[in-house]
Amino acid sequence: MSAYEESGLSERDRAVLALERRTWPGPGAKERAVRERLGITPTRYYQLLNALLDDPRALAHDPVTVNRLRRVRDARRERR
User: Fold this and answer.
1) Which sign, positive or negative, has the C-alpha torsion 44, 52, 50, 23?
2) Residue 4 has pLDDT above 50, yes or no
3) How far apart are CA 15 and CA 11, in angstroms?
4) Confidence of residue 5 (pLDDT cuts 50, 70, 90)
5) CB-CB neighbours of 9 under 10 Å
6) Helix %, strand %, coil % for the chain, to 5?
7) How many whole angstroms separate alpha carbon 63 and alpha carbon 54?
8) What tens digit of pLDDT does each residue of 51-69 get?
9) Taken in order 11, 16, 18, 24, is the CA torsion positive or negative?
10) Least confident piece of the model among 2-16, 29-43, 56-70
11) Which residues, at least 6 apart from 59, have a Cβ–Cβ distance to it below 8 Å?
12) Phi, psi (rounded to 5 degrees) for 3
């Protein structure tokens, strides 16, 4: 069994986290990649991403990305 299979995350979950690790050149590039690579709308993508941020398997799979995104999310919540 590979490390990816052991993580318990689906291929789509891993792809969402991989997209979040990247930097994007400009507005709209990430949303285009979401549609082209994952075949889902950006709204659905962000719903999946938010759920992943609370999933301990995602944290174990990619702690740097998940912790960075949790900090961003928490900061946004505090500003509201």
Assistant:
1) negative
2) no
3) 6
4) low
5) 20
6) 75, 0, 25
7) 12
8) 999 999 999 999 999 999 9
9) positive
10) 2-16
11) 66, 67
12) -60, -35
